[in-house]
Amino acid sequence: MVWPMTAVIQIEGLRKTFRTFRGGARVALNGFDMTVEAGQVHGFLGPNGSGKTTTLRTLLGLVRADDGHMSILGQRAPEALPAVAPRVGAIVESPQFFGNFTGRRTLQLLARAGGVPAERVDAVLAQVGLRDRAGERVKAYSLGMKQRLAVASALLKQPELLILDEPANGLDPAGIREMRDLMRELSAAGITVLVSSHILAEIQLICDHVTIISRGQRVATGPVAAVLSGFDKGEYRVRVGDLDRAAGVLTTAGLPVTRNDDHLVVADVADSAWISEQLGQRGMWVTELTPITPDLESVFLQLTAAAPGPSVPRQVDDVVQPGPIDLGVQP
Amino acid sequence: MNLALAEFSRLAARRFVLLMTMLLVAAFGVTAATTVAGSHEPTTAEWERAEQEVRFAEARIEQLRQDCERRQVSPTFCDAYVEREPRIEDYLFGVFVFSQEITDLVYFMIAFLALFAFLVAASFVGAELTSGGMTNLLLWRPQRVTVLGTKLGTVLAAVLALSAVASVLYIGAFYAIAEVTGVPGDLDGEFWRDLVLSVTRGLGLVLFAAAIGFGAATLGRHTAAALGLIATYAIVWEVGARIVFEVVELGRPDQYMLTSYIGAWMAGEVSFYDRFACTDSFGSLCQSQYEVTWVHAGAVFAILLAAIVGGAFATFRHRDLA
Lengths: 331, 322
Description:
The complex is a heterodimer of chains A (331) and B (322). Chain A has 331 residues and is an alpha/beta fold.
């Protein structure tokens, strides 16, 4: 198999079924595909239990795949992991550190185990904002500080590829912003970042590309803008004095209109000026005409059908079974 | 080497290891204190009385031998009387005699060290597997056999070093107690050779316990798996199976028990009585006694190590890690 030259991560047809001693089986990955190109900040999204962490664990050699092909930095995984590990920094879920060690000692031991120069320890501690707390024991750290330490451990190797599973877990708003800035800095420095997160707004701000997984299969992938544009229905929010009359005019003109309490939502609008013109000609003056652009959250919920219902609590497996969705943004 | 040093740092910093070390020191301290409390330096009167008792015993033995030689044609039979000369420490009561008691004390020490090694080795890998520490390490060194092997090697080396130091201090402490408030006894070359052999075998047993604890915790992914294995074995096999063997009148049940081999390993050889061996024959011609030697014990230990430690490495190579 020949991988694209710029693919830092290439996954094709990845399958994994977890089996229990009692004969039970749960399909975690069902032919999952993903490509991360060099220099990307690539978001990896999916509902709980959709296979994100299993994918990352399989890629990093912690879980054995039943089938499929993977490569990291152009080398086959997991066979070549020992060779590429020095170039890959990773945190998977919330890594546990030894509570009795200080933050600095924790990183020193990892640096020693990985053959990394000891000078890197203080550099990465400063980079993640732990320089002044590096002498404290890890058990005294907050969840957010432990998360920063985890990111520091991943940065220790000066990686070409950084794989971060929920890096904003436990961080306060300031910490989330710092993490965002850090990822931008890393990306600007040429490091490829694959980040999984549930904070979709963050992903939208940080990432230039995204892959969405549901029930172990890819449901969308591509540049964030392209994924979002695939769900742009040309909708506009229209505020006008007489909503019922305006709705009648627009409906008669063949546009799908949804009436809300204080505004209309009009879909399939090719030219917003046409709405102003039509309503103005009938003496209705538009006070608001705003395009409704989809955000990543709405696209994600639509793709995975993970939006909660009005009264019935959604179960973790109540997500969409991927079908042949063509967003026109598949690689 | 870097990985081994890092692992050693992690081992040394574990609170459980510190706690177990303190308990070990406390156990040895209590033993030494009890010995000191139960011993006293023999007074001149006690010493003279013991010397008198020795002279009486020697005279009695000599009389018995002469009587024996008058009746027996075989001089070797009568030599049995003089195989062990009466010693002065045999007649000193309430006095710690190093040469007589140190072997049992060493067995006690080895039992504690083996328990320490088992628990420390099991928790060293069990806690890492449970907490995700192993996962974190494998992200840095994605070489499972190397990582697990380094962990095992580190804990074995640490346990051996601590046990060797503890043995020297322990024996030295009791020798000092004997010098100060007891009697060293007859410490000839043979005594020291036997003592060194006992300690060496004991250290082997300690390493065996550590490896089994490590392997069982790895197989079960948890420290508790190793404890469960030991508890289950002790209750189901050493107690339960022994009762069943008794009921079905199975011959030589002791040869199926690990404790028999542990005893044989430490003593060099142990004899067991097979009560069903001579039921159909004339007693004097039938050998109802059988021996288990340290060689048998070594073979049993090797098989157990291959099954549990080998199995742990084999499964860890392919296991999905949480």
